[in-house]
Amino acid sequence: MTNKMTSIQIQHEKKHLHLKPTDLYMYQGFQVIEAYHQEQAECYYLFFYKASYLTGKSTSKIKRKSQLSTILQKGMHFSPEHPLLSYLLTHNRIHTFPALTPLWEKIQKRYSPLEASNILTIFDNYMKKDKIIKVMKDSALQYRREGQLLHTYQLLRLIIDLYPANKWAQEMSKNLQYQSYQSLYTSHPSSLLTKDPLYVQKYCFEHLEQDDSVALLLQILQKEGRKMEQLCLYSHLLITSKSDDHTYKQLIANLPPDFTSDEKVDFLSYILRNRRTHHEGLYHDLLGLLKKSSRYEDLLILLTKNKALITSKELPYVQEALLHVKWIENSGWLSNLTFHLDDDLTTKQVQALFQTFVPNLLQLKGLDYTEQWIAPYCSKYPGIPILKKIKKMASLKDDPDQMYALGELYYEFKQLAEAVECFNWELELDPTNIRSIKWLSKLYLEMGMVEESKSYQYMLRDGS
């Protein structure tokens, strides 16, 4: 249940870079991937705006008051296993790092001067702030010449918000012609939703601890069709919040209809892995999705990870997973599974579980390992038949006179090769033992070894 996107391939300055993502951030419309060059240990940042790729930069130093520094400190932080990373990499062509000059030309064509100026500030770690402020100042003056005073004032506020030491913006914003707009920004941000959504978004990100800010931000993301950012916000809230049933229902309701089962699993499993508290609805939705997708290995891991309690509600999932899981390919971790069983489970239910698990464990790891594995359960469930049989087999294994009984028990567990070994041992001690000869003939036939089976049939005839 992890993201398989582990490397980003970039062609930059005649070099082919293999970048490994280490962190992911989301803040005020921006998404930033932190990645490292695997060979030279260089740090790179890849920049996105509203999930659209901008460019990437090699970064050895981060300016203290830069926008990048703010995002890394205040942004929602996700590990690279978050589905957002896969989404950003698969929904964008990320093969090069476009230079800032041609990138700026594209940004100006696609966005308004206000939003374009806001995007440009993300690069103030790599550009002189005076140059960025000049671009913003020119846009503000152009708005003023066109008589668009509200847009002028919005740009002035943006400059002051990001670069409060700028005296030109401070003084110009105090002009009487902007006085009517100043009062707009003293009321609740919701009143500016249509006039200045960029400001409202910034306000909401800075006040995410307030429920009305969260609701307002979700409204903006919904209106602008920024579905992935909306889902990321839900995941952030579910990871950081305890009282969240409403948020979880909203997340489920807003999952895109074209999301595959695997994509839903990736989203929910990331949240579950990173939550500090259990969420019943999320847990059982994820179990159902894993079962529906036939992801039985992941289903078993989820059911047994972190000492998850198996109740009668989860037991059918465990049993189905055990019936379909690929034991040989996953023998390492399967043989180390521990079941934390609810006290309300009946003896019959526990027997059914062990009846599915123990024979596979016996086949893969042998009797000694299986005896050790069942030991913690024997005291709690002394009457479980399959556990009693394993204990009995362990008591017989070192007694040469009990090989016949041990062989019969191995056969019950469909461990034919081990049963053959036991009956051969018994036959060596007593070459005329007809019961052992019959067993060996039967076993070899079941194993598909016809000639060997016939040889024991001849022995029976010769001895009769």
Beta content: 5-15%
Taking Cα atoms only, what radius of gyration do you get, to the nearest Å? Answer: 33 Å
Extract low-pLDDT stretches.
Answer: none
| Mean of all residue-level pLDDT scores | 91
Outline: elongated
What is the number of E strands?
Answer: 8
Largest sheet: 6 strands, antiparallel
Derived structural class = alpha+beta
Number of helices: 23
Helix content: 55-70%
Kindly, what is the distance between the CA atoms of the first and last residues, rounded to a whole number of angstroms? 62 Å
List the helices and strands and how they pair.
Blueprint: E1 8-12, E2 15-27, E3 30-37, E4 43-49, E5 52-58, H1 67-74, E6 76-78, H2 83-90, H3 100-110, H4 113-120, H5 129-145, H6 149-162, H7 167-173, H8 179-182, H9 197-206, H10 211-223, H11 227-240, H12 245-253, H13 261-274, H14 280-292, H15 296-304, E7 309-310, H16 315-324, H17 331-334, E8 340-341, H18 347-378, H19 385-396, H20 403-412, H21 416-429, H22 434-446, H23 450-463
Parallel strand pairs: 7-8
Antiparallel strand pairs: 1-2, 2-3, 2-6, 3-4, 4-5
Helix pairs in contact: 3-4, 4-5, 5-6, 6-7, 9-10, 11-12, 11-13, 13-14, 15-16, 16-18, 18-19, 20-21, 21-22, 22-23
